[in-house]
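Exam revision sheet. Question 4 asks you to relate a sequence to its structure. Input first:
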Amino acid sequence: MDPSIAALPVDDSSGSRTIFTLLLLTAILVAQIGIFLSLKAKSNGKDMSKTYTLEEIRKMKGETDIERIKNTTEKDIMEQSISDPDTPYLTDDELKEFTTSKERKKSDEHKKIQPTQKKRN
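Answer key, structure tokens:
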């Protein structure tokens, strides 16, 4: 049985299953509206989909704090990454598991070569 259906009450022809389903869908819709409104609030009320002319773009000033970037040390970056809950702090052993695309491609090519074939450089 589908686990999402298992959460619904048994259909006893009284309409309670239908009412429960409608309430569930309403709760989902309210949650999605709440997410939309919170994202709108985070954009500070700015219309993020506005179309700009090239001249308007040229007149815009960036909000990047260049001095802060220039004065940020490696220690600051490490402290910020460790304190960020969305960025996992990986151990040296975990970091060794990562490979570059070039390394993966080389490994894939090695796997494709049959024992009777010679590797081409």
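Marking note for examiners. Helices lie at 3-6, 16-42, 54-59, 66-71, 74-83, 92-96, 101-112.
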